[in-house]
Design a protein that fits this description.
About 85% of the residues lie in helices and about 0% in strands. The protein is an all-alpha fold and about 90 residues long. The chain has 2 domains: about 55 residues; about 30 residues. The longest helix has 28 residues.
Amino acid sequence: MIGIITPTVRSLNLLFSTITLATITKEHFSSILVCLTHVTGILTLCYTINWWFPNLSYEIWATFLLALMVGEWIFSSRETMWRNSA
């Protein structure tokens, strides 16, 4: 509950939760854990950016989220191409 008061603690809590989930997912692979870790990581990134730059316009957020989407799409495509070539 202390994370509600200070943004620094909230941001660090999200970061450590993401790291913990990634560690658990690596040991006990499950598609649900992978999705939960991915969503937590993206939320951590977005929250931290919003904390550092609180006055970003909707256009900048849209540009950032589209760039994130394209980056994930490229990463996903490379993974599929690598798997098909092996």
